[in-house]
Structure formats: C-alpha cells, structure tokens
Design a protein that fits this description.
- By secondary structure, the protein is an alpha/beta fold.
- Helices cover 48% and strands 15% of the residues.
- It contains 8 helices and 7 strands.
- It has a 5-stranded parallel beta sheet, with helices on both faces. The chain has a two-stranded antiparallel sheet with strand order 5-6.
- The structure holds adenosine monophosphate.
- Adenosine monophosphate (AMP) is lined by residues 12, 34-35, 38, 55-56, 59-62, 67, 88-89, 91, 95, 165, 174.
C-alpha cells in the first residue's frame, strides 16, 4: 500500500513546525524536519553537523549533498512505513527533483499532499522575535504560546533559548531565500492539484481545523 506523505511549506515562523507536529500526532505519522535533523547533527557535533553549522547560523540553505545524507539516515528508521510529515523539504528546485525521484522509486504509489501556510513578512518578524525553543524540539512563543513556567520547557524542563538564526539580521536573509525558492515548488504542487493553502495568521487551532478540512476534501 502507498504511503501518505504530507509536506509543509511556509516562511520561517509561519508555524509549519507546530502544524506538522499537530498533524503528525493526529494521523499517527512521524514528522521528518530537515531543520531539526540538522540542528541535532550540529548539537551533537557530528561531521555533518560541523559542515552544516555555518549555513544554519547564517540562515542559508545547507548543500543538497548533506540534506540527502541526513534524509537517507533518517529513512533507515522503520517508522515511516505508513507515511510521514515533511517539515522543511523540499526547499529548492533541485530538492523538488530529489523528492520526485523518491516518489518514483522508494515512495512509489504514495499519496502526497502539500500544505502552504501563508503569513505576511511583518507578522513573521514579530513571531520569530518571540520564538523560544528547547533542545528536545519543542517550540514556544513568548506571547502566543508561552511555556507554563517562564524560560522552561513544558515537556522536559530544560532551559529555552532563542535560535541563533532567529536573530533579526538573519531573519531577513532567510525570508529572502524563502521567497526566491518557493515559487516553482508551489507551482508544481498546484499544477498537480495537491496543494492546500491556508491563512497562517489565525489561531493555531483554526489553522489546524482548516488543514484537516482541506485534507478531507482532497481525499474525497
Ligand atoms: P527550519 O527549522 O525549517 O526553519 O530550518 C532551519 C535552517 O535549516 C534553514 O535556515 C537552513 O539553513 C536549514 N535547512 C532546513 N531544511 C533545509 C533544506 N531542505 N535544505 C537546505 N537547508 C535546510
């Protein structure tokens, strides 16, 4: 049987990580976040992590060779048999080609749905400035989604930090890269009639509902 693959797109701070986690939990599918995988390699100081570190800190796209390596490593785990939720991939036309190649080989017969979370630049900046994250992958916002105890992760109690690439100068660079690369990717999924667009400036709950409603429509 084919897998169910969901792809999340959106500018940094659009809430694609939050919505990927919600959808993954709801559908009992693992979330594969290239950003998370890279940060893990960086924190554990692996060879890949050391190479990726400079790109991550400066908000630049990590070379495809490295992305391919971390994905190959991730897909060795057996938890993606029924499908998975992709957060942060593909992020360029070359990566779209990599995905399409996978869909013709190892993921043949899969049902793919792409979800684009639209958020304006000003809102993105406000959100990112307030974003705090934990080593364990949990993310919070000082105003919109604060932790129960200030500065501490609800899930593991560790200290929350601001991502290096969430600093204002780097955000502008990440946004520029995002808009430069996203157009042809969205065009591809739109043409294939598997693209859902949602307004990401609503509450987490209403975006979640909107996504589910649209997925159900496409699955009819
Ligand atoms: P994210 O957590 O999705 O915001 O990604 C954080 C950073 O990880 C990005 O700014 C890039 O430096 C890197 N990254 C994540 N996914 C990719 C990807 N698919 N290709 C290249 N770089 C990526």
């Amino acid at each position: 049987m084919g897998k169910n693959i969901y792809l999340f797109f959106g500018p940094p701070g659009s809430g694609k990580g939050t919505q990927s986690d919600i959808l993954g939990k709801k559908l009992k599918l693992p979330v594969v976040s290239t950003g998370e995988l890279l940060r893990h390699e960086q924190e554990t100081k692996t060879k890949i992590g050391l190479i990726a570190s400079n790109y991550l800190t400066n908000g630049k796209l990590v070379p495809n060779k490295i992305i391919q390596k971390i994905l190959d490593k991730r897909f060795k785990k057996s938890d993606t048999k029924k499908g998975f939720v992709f957060d942060g991939f593909p992020r360029s036309e070359e990566q779209l080609d990599l995905l399409r190649a996978r869909l013709h080989k190892s993921e043949k017969g899969s049902k793919v749905i792409a979800i684009y979370i639209k958020v304006g630049d000003q809102e993105v900046k406000t959100r990112i400035i307030g974003r705090r994250v934990c080593d364990c992958g949990a993310a919070y916002h000082l105003k919109y989604n604060p932790p129960k105890k200030a500065g501490k992760c609800d899930l593991c109690g560790k200290k929350l930090v601001q991502r290096e690439d969430d600093k204002p100068k780097i955000i502008s660079c990440r946004l520029k890269h995002f808009y430069k690369t996203i157009k042809p990717i969205l065009h591809y999924f739109n043409q294939s009639h598997i693209l859902i667009e949602v307004n990401g400036e609503k509450s987490i709950k209403s975006i979640e509902k909107e996504i589910i409603k649209n997925i159900n429509k496409l699955n009819k």
